[in-house]
Records
---
Amino acid sequence: MTTLGTLAHARAGDKGDTSILVVAPFEAADFTRVDAALQHARVAQHFGVTTEAVTVHAVPGLVAFTVVIRGRLDGGVTRSRAADPHGKTLSGHLLDLPL
């Protein structure tokens, strides 16, 4: 199975209870293909959240995408009992998205 990780890399950040992921294709020529993979309904299903919790913004000038997932960090860094309260592993999970 081919995954998003074969075409792109990702970084994760957080703001409160919101995870902010940046996805950038390795090659600019794959921008359209990555865009097709990052439809917000597909991303929401992949993370097990509602479609309303996900926003995907294309940033063509940077050849990248911003993926925002609200309510995913169990209350945020200071409230979460999760092993990864910053959600850094979420970028790796997104790269497992099937193409």
---
Amino acid sequence: MSADKRTIGVLVMSYGTPESLEGVEAYYTHIRRGHPPTAEQLEDLTSRYRTIVGGVFPLRENTNRQAAALQSKLNELAGDGAYVCYQGLKHAAPFIEDGIAAMAADGIREAVGIVLTPQYSSMSVGGYLKRAREEAEKHGIRFRGVDEYHLHPQLIEALSERVNEGLEQLGGERGEALVLFSAHSLPAKILELNDPYADQLLATSGAVAAKAGVANWQFTWQSAGQTGQPWLGPDILETLEKLAAEGVRSVLVTPVGFVSDHLEVLYDIDIEAKQLAEEKGVRLARIRMLNDDPQYMAVLADSVIGAANGGNGNDE
């Protein structure tokens, strides 16, 4: 394509995932900054993928659908050609740098980056945007990044609808159910940096609970890395054990830090957490993920257009 003067590139960023079981080792090695995993580590991750999807990789498919749906929404709101979406993944091709390079090859001179997670942390969203911005500078592309959208009204609406839907599915247990909000843990050292991640997650959780009319809720962490350093806790498994000991018998997990069906949802919650809950006599359900839901696409499109017009983001 030949971009006109005002065509704005949109870099849609996600963590990335392998395309097949054969690609797990290269993917894991990239996560480990070039250090190959041990045979045990590789088998553990591969077996998790094999267990949940039998070789199909939902995050890859979801990201493709999300980028396409966001493109359609931007076309609807701003007209065809005003925005053009590209993908940039953190740990798999097309990498963040690949997405920016593709923009440059297409003649894009202005870009907005948005990450498929609502809350900001310097160790997550901040890292994505830094990589994208540095690469954009090499190509002479003016880059703006969407820092967060954790309290966007349509995001809260979409999540609250899913909470009410999940509680209805619990039937007679609705009144006794505890809504357990969760998100990916990060190294605890972010607390020393006054990082907003934890506060934004609590803000999202509180807003969703209020919108859904839920008074009985808690927040917990999940999916901590095995790095030998402290990570934010308590972990969801610890929390479920504590809740069971306190007599809670019905839990609706609401992973507000995630937007897609992927390993941390389909394995860490649907298999690992659910198994523990059953062992403790707790019925565990989970809300539907946002994936390419029209309301979520509206959130992303509104955030992108706002950033392009000088708001809700960092301008470089």
